[in-house]
Amino acid sequence: MSDLRDQGADQQALPKPRFVPGNRLQRDRRTRVSDLGVVVLLLVTGCVRAPAPLPAPEVHRPEVWVDAFSPAGGDGSSAHPFKTVPRPVAPGATVHLRTGLYPGPFVLGEGTRFEGSGEVVLTGEAGETVVSGTGATLERLSVQGGAVGVEAGPNMTLTRVHFSGQRKQAVVVHGALTMSQATLEASVEGIEGISVERGATLRLRQTKFLGGFRRAVATEGGTLELNDVAAEGPKTLLHAIDAKCTLEKLRSTLGSGPALFFAGGAVSLQGAELIGHEFSVQLSRGVDAKLSGVKARGAFEGCISGINVKLSLSRSSLDTCGAGGAVSLQGSNAGLTDVEISSAQDLGIFVKHGALALSGITISRVAADRDGVLGDALHVRAEAEVTATGPITVVDVDGSALFASTYSTVRLPRLSVERARASALFVELGASVTIGDLLVRGGRGAAVVVPDKARVQLDSLSVAGGNEMPVYAECRQGAQVTVGRLESTIQQLPSQCVRVPAKPK
Length: 505
Description:
This protein has about 500 residues and is mainly beta. It has a domain at about 345-505. The strands form two sheets. It has a 22-stranded parallel β-sheet that branches. It has a 17-stranded parallel β-sheet, with no helix packed on it. The radius of gyration is 40 Å and the shape is rod-shaped. The protein starts with a helix and ends in a 6-residue tail after the last strand. Mean pLDDT is about 90; it is low at about 1-50 and about 55-60.
């Protein structure tokens, strides 16, 4: 008992604890608040960094490998590829194809990719479509056979794809297709290359068409963006109706139809080389065409032809154009700026009805037809109106430098003519011609011919060598010619309807 009493006395003598069980919860709250304040203070002062956010989970696209020469029973890995393409192809899958033939048809969903390595050929039977897809990609492979090579829905991409052996069309675009570095060969004569449906879009880059396609690219109501596209052999490179076309760096050779055909819609063209077609560019039915940098040669009907269109042609050269003329316009509103025409057949520029504005035009070597008629550099008739803001130069034409007829109107600030075999000006049938300065050298016959009721007004006329007389006019038929200043090595015969300044005595 004494020991127990001694231990109790000792416990009472110990100092009392600071916290008692009853205030433990309150103590814990105060301690946590204090600790949180310290953490906030450290974060604010930059002493402690906030914990880094957790990385976003990686999204892995399914990938499979296929090798036509591998043994059966592979698992689709790179080391043990499938022997054939799995069916159906999972949307979003990337299928790596090694050298071999892979029979279709293939239906590709959103995000699916076919990537070729080596000589990869997707094949199809005569009546089927080899590949159809939406949001899919083909890269570095060939599409061979089938009625149609590829049918493209929205957002499809083809890169380095080769087409051949189709029986109907190489490509049909229903939605939107971007194609680059592709080659399309017409194994069957007269098939279509790429058909773009109404409302669909084609973006084409660095692509070649080879062989006898009827039309390399055709659309009615589609949108086309073509850059660096070449055709060798197709009858027509581009046939567009009611379409919106943005074109750059086109080249077409060896075709028998119009190289470029547009009816309705709008077209912007920057740079084209068009050789040996029926027409280089054929325009009709109200198309709004802005053409620049066109080099046309060897068109056997005509280089540029427009009927009821709006045309702007600039910085272009037209060489060896056929009987339809280098530029032929009917019922159109057109402007030609910095255009060079050479070696034309029958006509240089032909204008009927409508209006034409000219600036910086050079026309040389226009040959008459087999009967020895025409050969005119600028032929204007049927109430057409032609105006110029810059000089016009004409050299070596079998006909007239300017032929104006049937109530047409021509106003030029300066016309320079060398060796026009018929005349520099031939004006008839109610036409009206006003020229600031007319320079004529080395022609034949009269420099200016007005055979009936028509009017010519020249601020100055200079005639040097070759011509028989400066002006010939049929006064009894109502011709009227007024010359403000005349310089001529040939004397002008007096005429009641030709007004020239009197020579100073």
